Automatic annotation (TrEMBL):
Belongs to the acyl-CoA dehydrogenase family. Its cofactor is FAD. Residues 127-218 form the Acyl-CoA oxidase/dehydrogenase middle domain. Keywords: FAD, Flavoprotein, Oxidoreductase. This is Acyl-CoA dehydrogenase. It comes from Macrococcus carouselicus. The lineage of its organism: Bacteria, Bacillati, Bacillota, Bacilli, Bacillales. Gene3D superfamilies: Acyl-CoA dehydrogenase/oxidase, N-terminal domain, Butyryl-CoA Dehydrogenase, subunit A, domain 2, Butyryl-CoA Dehydrogenase, subunit A, domain 3. Transmembrane segments: none annotated. Residues 27-103 form the Acyl-CoA dehydrogenase/oxidase N-terminal domain.
Amino acid sequence: MDRDLFIATDAEKKWLQLFEENKEWIKVSAKEADLKGELNHQLIDWLTDEGYNRLTLPESRGGFGCAVKSCLLIQEALAYYDEATALSIGWHLGVVGEVFEFGLWSEEMMDQFAEDIRAGGMTNRVVSEAAMGSPTRGGRPGTNAVRHEGGWLLNGVKTYVSMSHRLTHYLVGAYVEEEEGMCFFYVPADRAGCSIVETWNVMGMRATASHDLVLENVVVPEGAMVEGKREKKENPWLMHIPAVYLGIAQGAADEAAEFALHHSPNSIEGVIADIPHIETKLGQMELKLMTMRHFLYHAAELHSAGRQMLLPTFSAAKYNAVNMGLEVVDIAMRIIGGQSLDKEGVIERRYRSMRAGLHNPPMDDAVLALLVRTVKEKG
């Protein structure tokens, strides 16, 4: 794979080597977690012990200090073996990267955040609600926060809380009347009034355990409101999402190539990889993977170089990764044939998981609408 072209830092090399050395038990645990529809606790424990939750925490605060591009490359490699765990912990890595790169919180709260992460903490920005639809479309959350005895009182229900049972803190999006908009509150998971209701029973990304969070009269101090209402800004850290789907697609393509290079039915001489239409399919998959990967990592490099106005690029990276990834998985399954539907294999799980990408932000229609606006603005 051409991912090797982009490996550059010691952190990237370290984690890729660790994944390679531990791939056998990771694959087994990923399969079991998917079948049960539960978090891969074995893998999460190992990742936390190795400091994976500190991947995007600045070195000055005790982390690995990975920039966007390194985070994407390492996440892609993890998703190759366990896409659900990669997506789940990716939300945490993205929040940490965004908060510290852009200095979103007060220094006091960022110090507290870093301390929690060093102690093994993990968080997720919980925004979605059943009645609101996708938070990226601007709906008003039903979850609300009101002033209460020198602090805040939170009530509401959040959906799609990935890695729900393993989060130590929630970054809760709640409507604040005086701000006339949604603000974010840093809430410890063990705070009285917080509870997880197990509602997650889906076809793809089953092991993200994205259950509901219920907040019932949850009291937090004044400083817990870490982000007031603010204008939406381009966030390169959300590209952890397409990195995961790139990893899924690469895994499917490699399985198909392995099958084609060794499968030799008695109706032909040699292996099916030598049949012209199979050769074409292998080439199509590789071209799509190269397009996805180069676009994604170039977007990250543009950000690192200080380029501005990259929201259309970041959005297109996600659109490409998911839609081309769907095509790659489909081609891979056509190469493997009926065996690709076998529940004992991995590729059928990759197919189910890849479909979930259509429902991660930004959605396809929103990306296309953004690109249309940029065209009109240029005119």
